[in-house]
Specification:
single chain; alpha/beta; Flavocytochrome C3, Chain A, domain 1; eight-stranded mixed beta sheet; four-stranded antiparallel beta sheet; binds flavin-adenine dinucleotide
Length: 606
């Protein structure tokens, strides 16, 4: 076992982790970043469409309108203080990224170009506005490369391909983390004054997902097992446009450029569900509409998918009908949606310039996660009690800025805004804080768990359990939900956990690059995420944002303008049969509604 000592340890090297690392190092802290992937392979690099900020480069825009869209898009569950910070800080953050060298696309007069995206409007919902800043459809890739370069320049220490498997606590304070070095199988203890989790999401809980294989909820799970609750887990976003059968994401930017959704009769069905903003309605609405079309037999060829059409002749026809003067052609698409063309041609052999693209909703983004305040400090209860030394940012965290449903482009904003705030807060904290002692035998418990997995010789393969989990979550805890379906899922998950603890087997018993073993461990994390999602979902007896119940169809603002906090009732991180408590005493922050009636919850009109 090796011990490393750094004032700040950041787990995860996606946009959130790198932004936090950059700011903590600029604030003078000694910073290490520990990542199971090589940094530039993080999922942030897959983000296509853009990053939203009210720069107003092409038409008038204001942060307060961005905050409004965020709150409304989040179906009023977003904390309004956080939404305002997000919208206001976004403007600075984008300018700063530009100054760091991020190659944004430009307007003819040299300013950062912006495009439309679902749910982005001007003047409190009046009409669509161009707010998404982009670097072609490779925005996330460019953010990641830019931030990584800056971190290297700032002497941040990187531990690449180190898999964090436990967080170390001293009483109520966080003092470090344990990682396994993939190439050797050795245990490394990171002793820190401040630890920030930026480990991203857990889309791999579901069968059809846009998320990379690595997105297994590890960071959230290890923190959850050490007594920190998870917030708003029931809110998981399904993006409407995943490639049929694969789930690979097609950016909302396609619809932003004029692409439209068609059913088997060639009808533009979004006109029916969202007469005002149609195909650019928020993601929950579009995903549900696709699901309903399919359910009523209007999927293409009677199957469970519809078409996304970006062929210039189709787009131009609808643009003309809408009275717009703009027209597009093949070259325009080649330039602005290069990745999209590539993905469709490579994965399913469809050329979007000549054919419509088959799509279905895909598990995409977790609105919930590790609860934090607006400075990325982790909180442990409804009262907002801060856990000393523990921070979280990015998709793994729940600030909560996305409420019940995230707007497109707001995740990248969240990473840079709250990653930065977390980095600054940690730099300030470590100036006066001491290193608290590590627990005795810091790796004892986690080593025992890994030995159990390594030596397991039951009958059930890891991938069988994973497939069963993904199927039951897709069938019962996805776009539409019922009490009965969710209870079926909960019972199945219990059974899967039992098998996981008593009957699995793995093939590779070695130490070096043992991905077999790591995958077995990741499945345990996925099960934690699946179970906390299903339990939080069955507890919330209303429909709001991405949480849509057929047995409670209405949004209930009287009883449910509250966040869910789910706690494990056990100190044993590897309890085979954990029970949970759900606390709904954390009220949504309504600071804008208190001064402006436009922020008071209203029924959404599409
Ligand atoms: C295909 C796709 C397209 C998207 N497009 C957009 C978009 O256009 N606009 C937008 O706003 N959002 C978009 N999103 C969402 C957004 O990209 C993600 O929410 C965001 O990038 C998450 O960033 P992150 O920094 O939180 O984590 P990630 O970028 O996912 O990085 C996670 C990091 O944690 C590390 N890690 C994980 N587990 C461990 C462990 N156990 N030990 C050590 N390290 C660990 C990984 O190595 C990685 O470095 C998209 C998402 C997807 C999947």
């Amino acid at each position: 076992m090796q011990i490393h000592k750094h004032e700040v340890v950041i787990i995860g090297a996606g946009g959130a982790g790198l932004m936090a690392a950059l700011y903590a190092s600029r604030g003078g802290a000694d910073v290490a970043v520990v990542s199971k992937l090589y940094p530039t392979r993080s999922h942030t690099g897959a983000a296509l469409g853009g990053i939203g900020a009210a720069l107003g480069n092409l038409e008038e825009d204001k942060p307060i309108w961005h905050a409004f869209d965020t709150v409304k898009g989040g179906d009023y569950l977003a904390d309004q203080d956080a939404a305002l910070i997000l919208a206001e800080n976004a403007v600075d953050a984008i300018v700063e990224l530009e100054h760091m060298g991020l190659p944004f696309d430009r307007t003819p007069d040299g300013r950062i170009s912006q495009r439309r995206f679902g749910g982005h409007t001007s003047n409190f919902g009046e009409k669509p506005v161009r707010r998404a800043c982009h670097a072609a459809d490779r925005t996330g890739h460019m953010i990641l490369q830019t931030l990584y370069q800056q971190c290297i320049k700032n002497n941040v220490n990187f531990f690449d391909e180190y898999h964090v498997v436990d967080v170390l606590m001293n009483g109520d304070a966080c003092v470090g983390a344990v990682a396994i070095q993939l190439s050797t199988g050795e245990y490394h203890v990171f002793h820190a004054k401040a630890v920030l989790f930026a480990t991203g999401g857990w889309g791999r809980v579901w069968q059809i997902t846009s998320n990379a294989h690595s997105l297994t909820g590890d960071g959230a799970a290890v923190v959850f097992r050490r007594g920190i609750p998870m917030e708003d887990m029931e809110f998981y976003q399904f993006h409407p446009t995943g490639l049929y059968g694969l789930g690979v994401l097609l950016t909302e930017g396609i619809r932003g450029e004029g692409g439209i959704l068609l059913n088997r009769n060639g009808e533009r069905f979004m006109e029916k569900y969202a007469p005002k903003i149609k195909d650019l309605a928020s993601r929950d609405v579009v995903s549900r509409s696709i699901y309903l079309e399919v359910r009523d037999g209007r999927g293409i060829n009677g199957r469970n998918y519809v078409h996304l059409d970006i062929r210039p002749q189709t787009v131009n026809r609808y643009l003309a009908e809408a009275g717009e003067t703009r027209r597009i052609d093949d070259d325009y698409i080649r330039k602005n949606l290069a990745e999209t063309l590539d993905v469709c041609r490579t994965y399913i052999g469809v050329d979007p310039l000549t054919e419509p693209i088959p799509i279905q909703p895909t598990a995409h983004y977790s609105m919930g996660g590790i609860p934090t305040n607006i400075d990325a400090e982790v909180i442990r209860d409804a009262a907002g009690t801060v856990v000393r030394g523990l921070y979280a940012a990015g998709e793994v965290a729940c600030v909560s800025v996305h409420g019940a449903n995230r707007l497109g482009t707001n995740s990248l904003v969240d990473l840079v805004v709250f990653g930065r705030r977390g980095g600054m807060k940690m730099a300030e904290f470590v100036k006066t804080a001491e290193f608290l002692p590590l627990p005795n035998n810091p790796t004892e418990q986690i080593q025992a768990e890994f030995e159990r997995l390594r030596k397991s010789n039951g009958k059930t393969r890891v991938h069988e359990l994973r497939t069963r989990m993904q199927k039951v979550m897709m069938d019962h805890v996805s776009v539409f939900r019922t009490e009965e379906g969710m209870n079926t899922a909960i019972a199945e998950l219990k059974e899967l956990r039992h098998l996981y603890m008593t009957d699995i087997c793995i093939d590779d018993r070695g130490t070096k690059y043992n991905t077999d073993l790591m995958e077995a461990w990741e499945l345990g994390c996925l099960l934690d995420m699946a179970e906390s999602t299903a339990l939080s979902a069955v507890n919330r007896k209303e429909s709001r944002g991405a949480h849509s119940r057929e047995d409670y169809k209405a949004r209930d603002d009287v009883n449910w303008l509250v966040h869910t906090l789910i706690h494990r009732n056990t100190d044993d991180p590897y309890d085979a049969n954990p029970t949970y408590t759900i606390d709904t005493n954390r009220k949504v922050n309504m600071s804008l509604a208190d001064v402006d009636e436009r922020f008071v919850p209203k029924e959404r009109v599409y």
